[in-house]
Amino acid sequence: MGKTKQLMTGVVTSVLAIGMTGCGQDQTLPAEPTGYECDDWEWDDEEGTYFCDDQRSSHFGSYFLLGSLFSSKSALRNSSGYSKHKSSYQSSGYKSGIGSGTKGGFGG
Amino acid sequence: MINSPFSKIRERVYKDIPYFYPDLEGEEYALLDIHCQPEDYWEQIRTAATEVGSIFTKVAPLLRTLEDATLLQLGFPAETLSYIKVKSIPQEYIIGRLDFIVHDSTIKLLEFNSDTPTFIKETFQANSFLCNYFGLKNPNEGNEHLLHIEMRKAVAACWTKGNKNRTPKIVFTSHADHIEDKWTTRFLQEQLQLPSEYVSLSELKIITESFTEDGVTHEPGLFTPSFERIDILYRQTYPIEHLVDDEDPESGEHVGRALMKLVEQDQLMILNPPSAFLLQSKAIQALIWGLHEEEEFFTKDEHDIIHRYFLPTYLEPDTFIHKNQSYVKKPCFGREGDTVEIFNGFGEKTNEEPMKTYTDSLPVYQLYQTLPKRTITTTVGEKHVHLMVGCFLINKRASAIGIRAGGEITNNESYFLPVGIQI
């Protein structure tokens, strides 16, 4: 049996087993933030973040980004207080050598 | 390169582009020339890209259900099998590039570089400078914003999955001594517009197994040179099939495989995500063509898309020899034309790339189609070259377009030919 035929035998078995004839998986927006009193999160395509559009919420107009809530769009843009979780510890338990196999230039 | 007035103009035009690389390894790379076509020409390429992309997006979930033996038949290294089944975020890939042969309205897919495409800075940024110089409208106008939005979404999706109540440490990485890789990566870092750090691959530190020292336990993870734990690693230019071979210089430990294990165990998020590598094998095109021929899996519309844009691709050349058709043999994880060979319908080799880096990679056989030709202007005069059109897919949305101009086999020595809209 040729390699292609062999490959397709395995593939068609999977197709039949799972009955996949539907559409491709739909990629939606990231999950809405949780843990805040806000019933209406809207995606701001300009900023690539969610903001609270719930007028009854104390967070109305706040922007959520990667674990932090900013009171306004300008606060979001001016934010620099991203947490550092830095360890000054140095030990032989750390290894290196990532990227050692090639010298680069292998992106296609 | 000749120090002619033309060369000086070229130098001046490209000097305005921040951190660009008009010459690579001392050779002219970016041309002071432009490929001008009407707007609908570029739009039909984007339509093709969107439709072809929908086919890859549809097969990705199927690929994750395949037995290991079948995945090996698709050329995936054995060490990557558990990694490629990880679905870390909803997106299958963030930045991918489809390479096409375009003859007027006939568009055929050569390959999909879904995991580590470069040519980003050229098309998303440099192209606009060249359009300004030639006084033409830029077909890629506004695409930087799409890149920004989709990178933001991807990072947000990563961190939602991480579900941690703090802000993430985001690191962009590449080989720092490779100018194209480095400036492409730094360009992407700028597009994200979030606090992040650039760390060269060689400076990354990894803990492969937890250990306790002085009463402090250190958990496995990836770290910056100053020992900050990395949450999200953006590595646009370093292929997974090379990462699997990385070793710690002292212990010889397979640190690349350890990094992949961190991803599998949700201790590190990586972009492009693992699913992007799943689509990278050129053998996926043999699988798609096989499902098309078997009339399985795809809807009628999808069969039409495959018929229109895909080239017959198999894991052996028999069909082409039987039909006396010329074909191309290429490694399923090859890049830049390396190890590619062209054969006539009798199975006789007619052209080959001198570079043979990927002879160990499973070969695929694809119907040969000629690339269109045109004359370009270089610093050493006019040249007749072949044109290959690359169109980026940014999370399924067709985006920036660019042309590589070179030999019958597009390789590392091919030029960047900017594109413009003919009014």
Quote the beta fraction of chain B.
15-25%
Look at the helices and sheets of chain B and give the structural class: alpha+beta
| Number of E-state strands of chain A | 4
Distance between the termini of chain A: 33 Å
Give the helix tally of chain A.
Answer: 2
Helix-strand string of chain A? HEEEEH
Q: Major β-sheet of chain A, in short? A: 4 strands, antiparallel
Distance between the termini of chain B: 33 Å
Helix content of chain A: 10-25%
- Global Rg of chain B: 22 Å
How many helix segments of chain B? 13
Structural Rg of chain A: 24 Å
Q: Count the beta strands of chain B.
A: 23
Strand proportion of chain A, as a percent range, falls in: 5-15%
Secondary-structure blueprint:
The complex is a heterodimer of chains A (108) and B (423).
Chain A (H helix, E strand, L loop, with lengths): L2 H16 L22 E4 L4 E4 L10 E3 L2 E3 L2 H6 L30
Antiparallel strand pairs in A: 1-2, 2-3, 3-4
Chain B lengths: L4 H11 L7 E2 L2 E2 L6 E3 L1 H27 L2 H6 L7 H4 L10 E9 L2 E8 L6 H15 L8 H20 L7 E3 L6 H14 L4 E2 L6 E3 L3 E3 L2 E3 L2 E3 L8 E3 L5 H4 L11 H10 L4 E3 L2 H5 L4 H11 L6 H10 L3 E2 L3 H5 L4 E5 L9 E3 L5 E4 L10 E5 L5 E6 L2 E14 L2 E10 L8 E3 L1 E3 L2
Parallel strand pairs in B: 3-23, 6-7, 6-12, 12-13
Antiparallel strand pairs in B: 1-2, 4-5, 4-20, 8-11, 9-10, 14-18, 15-16, 15-18, 16-17, 19-20, 20-21, 21-22
Helix pairs in contact in B: 2-12
Structural summary, described in words:
With 108 residues, chain A is of the alpha+beta class. Chain A has a domain at 32-91. Chain A contains two helices and four strands; from the N terminus they run αββββα. Chain B has helices at 5-15, 39-65, 68-73, 81-84, 120-134, 143-162, 179-192, 240-243, 255-264, 274-278, 283-293, 300-309, 318-322, and strands at residues 23-24, 27-28, 35-37, 95-103, 106-113, 170-172, 197-198, 205-207, 211-213, 216-218, 221-223, 232-234, 269-271, 313-314, 327-331, 341-343, 349-352, 363-367, 373-378, 381-394, 397-406, 415-417, 419-421. Chain B is globular. Helices cover 34% and strands 24% of the residues of chain B. In chain B, helix 2 (39-65) packs across helix 12 (300-309). Chain B has 13 helices and 23 strands. In chain B, strands 4, 5, 19, 20, 21 and 22 form a six-stranded antiparallel beta sheet that branches. Chain B has a five-stranded antiparallel beta sheet with strand order 14-18-15-16-17. Chain B has 423 residues and is of the alpha+beta class.
